[in-house]
DNA sequence: ACAAACCCTTACGCAAGCGTTAGGGTTATC
DNA sequence: GATAACCCTAACGCTTGCGTAAGGGTTTGT
């Protein structure tokens, strides 16, 4: 992975619902929202399918709603669709994308895997694995293998980063002592208080070796 | 930061010295290699400048040597120079870049800061800060501020990644139980053992809620 | 003098993950 | 029926950190 993650900023808008898209009205087969959660516990083992279908009967989200709920941009959602990570549940007459609430879970899933260092393509391949699997347990086995690898990579990264964090911290403590340094004294000694050697010869940390994160500054520079 | 780090692979060549560039010969003011390290301890506080100048009298490295010693490519070194992170100590008559051994420290410094999530531009700005500082202590103060910020960012990243690592690990354990699942039983129950509900209704983890990293698979898919 | 290894500069290429127009419909509200 | 606020598709743009030629010298050894 290239560098550290800079997390996306959440959208600024307030209202989580759009101008009442797909509102509960008669004639529309896609609207009986509510109660699903209350019924689920019983239906759970009896028929997960009914449970799931009910979930889809809930109010649908426009792409903007989905984006806001996930802290993504509309463009990002479109992009995910383009690379095969997501598909709208339906389209309105005007070809507006309409998503079920489960799309939120999907987008968050994408987000997390991405934070875990996978590319969108990698993630797509996971979906492909899952879809091509002959049975659910088979699919899960394959997913598990991928996750397993990722876990190893993440742990490696964590170790590296932890070491670097310590180094950085140590360097900061080293630099703290520089504050007690009087430029005039250095000038007296070296003529030019800015000279690279002024620091490495400063008496405040004679014993301490200069940390690499500090030494690099006055090493073979561009100066 | 975009994703996780994939560390560069070290070069394959064996010999760390090139075909004897800038060999100790007469007439060349840049060659008295050796002894420097032995003299240094005494000169250290007396005159850091002499110490440093001696270091530069050591044998010089060609760009290929430098690259190999740092696990970078020649192209990368060139690039660092292009963005103002590094400059050859000298050039040969034929315009070959010749670096002092301290360039190694510089490149490693660049590498570490990069791993810590800074862009090359960020790193260049650190150098600029240092060079523009009126005195060494002043410079160090500015550097410290930058490092301080970085430390905070890195720690944030570590926390996020640690949480995600746990989630991933938990998901793996959840998936382990899938292995004990018999596709035939699922088929008997759902007709299609691959159906998304087959897994979420599997009796093996009735109580356990499905981890997000698993739920995302069969949520609002591209299927 | 010639080959093997290097090195030089210039400049286009590339992967990722969206950002950003550009031009043009759609929905819901007033 | 006129807005405002959204949404659609298509497609080029951008950033980072080099990779990869392309065309041509330089060093060193034999």
Derived from helix and strand composition plus strand pairing, the structural class of chain A reads mainly alpha
What's the tally of helices of chain A?
10
Strand order of the largest sheet of chain A: 1-3-2
Gross geometry of chain A: elongated
For this structure, the CATH topology of the domain at 50-111 in chain A is Multidrug-efflux Transporter Regulator, Chain: A, Domain 2
* Oligomerization: homodimer
Average of pLDDT of chain A: 74
Q: What is the terminal separation of chain A in angstroms?
A: 31 Å
Largest sheet of chain A: 3 strands, antiparallel
Helix-residue proportion of chain A: 55-70%
Look at the structure and give the CATH class of the domain at 50-111 in chain A. Mainly Alpha
Task: Indicate the radius of gyration of chain A in whole angstroms.
Answer: 28 Å
Largest interface (C-beta under 8 Å): A-B, 105 and 105 residues
Estimate what percentage of residues of chain A fall within beta strands.
under 5%
Give the helices and strands of chain A as they follow along the chain.
HHEHHEEHHHHHH
Extended strand count of chain A: 3
Annotated CATH architecture of the domain at 50-111 in chain A: Orthogonal Bundle
Poorly predicted parts of chain A: 5-17, 20-57
């Amino acid at each position: 992975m290239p560098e550290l993650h800079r997390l996306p900023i959440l959208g600024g808008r307030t209202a989580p619902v759009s101008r009442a898209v797909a509102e509960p009205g008669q004639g529309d087969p896609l609207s009986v929202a509510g109660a699903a959660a209350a019924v689920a516990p019983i239906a759970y083992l009896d028929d997960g399918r009914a449970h799931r279908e009910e979930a889809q009967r809930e109010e649908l989200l426009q792409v903007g709603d989905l984006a806001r709920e996930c802290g993504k941009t509309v463009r990002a959602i479109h992009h995910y669709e383009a690379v095969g990570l997501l598909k709208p549940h339906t389209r309105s007459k005007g070809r507006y994308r309409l998503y079920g609430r489960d799309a939120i879970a999907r987008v968050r899933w994408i987000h997390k895997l991405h934070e875990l260092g996978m590319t969108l393509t990698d993630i797509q391949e996971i979906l492909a694995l899952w879809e091509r699997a002959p049975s659910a347990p088979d699919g899960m086995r394959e997913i598990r293998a991928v996750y397993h690898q990722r876990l190893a990579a993440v742990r490696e990264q964590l170790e590296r980063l932890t070491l670097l964090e310590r180094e950085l911290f140590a360097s900061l403590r080293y630099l703290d002592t520089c504050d007690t340094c009087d430029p005039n004294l250095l000038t007296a000694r070296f003529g030019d208080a800015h000279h690279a050697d002024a620091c490495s010869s400063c008496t405040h940390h004679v014993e301490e070796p200069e940390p690499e994160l500090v030494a690099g500054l006055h090493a073979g520079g561009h100066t």
